[in-house]
Amino acid sequence: MKFGGVDNPELIDFTLQKDHPDTVRVLKENASEEFNVFVGCAKWNRADLKGFYPRGTKDELEYYSKQFNSIELNATFYRIFPPEQFEKWYEKTPDNFKFFPKLNQEISHWKRLNEDVGPVVENYLYSAVNLKEKLGCVFLQMHNNFAPKDFNRVVDFVESWPKEIPLAVEFRHTDWYNDTSVSKALYQLLEANNISNIIVDSAGRRDIMHMRLTNSRAFIRYVGANHQSDYDRLDDWIKRLQTWKEAGIDEINFFVHQNIEKESPLLSAYFIEQLNKNLGTNLHIPKMKDDLSTDTLF
Q: Three-state SS for 93?
């Protein structure tokens, strides 16, 4: 994931912002007895996760899903798969596994949420629902140049989204978060429709970092810089997630990206270990191959 990449990550201030004043309110208003955490990578293919799969692995998804409890399914951005493919993914994975598929680019980047996008959304969901209970949360990622001038499209899209299917949204144009009047209207819209506001933690785009949750789900897309500071950043996230757990958060979805993706499983394993130690989770810690160590990666 090259989005937000920088040449000198040691020069970036990675300090997490303070929580938005309404975040704790939202967590307390939506608190329940449930607490679930899903951590995963962006891809499962061997070409990207070099060194992760043991020699002789016949099915990458089958092995991946025994190491992680979720996957951020980016493949669905590039093509709309038929129902049969989702059924196959469902059958290959354990009972507790969840998929978090990205909406197709025709919806977000080509039609750009225009009024004629409805049939494409219906076609996409017709296939995706074949994941059944393993469908975690669908997410929408808009193009960098999709600006608040088209806010009315967002309103129409969000209000017409089927309420039984969880949705999270990510905006990359800086004005969505740095124009106060726009951000306030966006947060209110998402909150009213129970849509999650995705948090993107990337070195080169600190301008779109925010700590505003709009429901009881924290959907975080973490982009490492292939630098030792990645681990310190994850430690900071552990502290923040502890705070949110105390405030009543129901679910955490945390997906690890890297410009060199082969390091994603290693970072994820470290993060899961810290979650187990500090938040009382009991997640399986992914196994690493012997040659996948911090000495070889940094």
A: coil
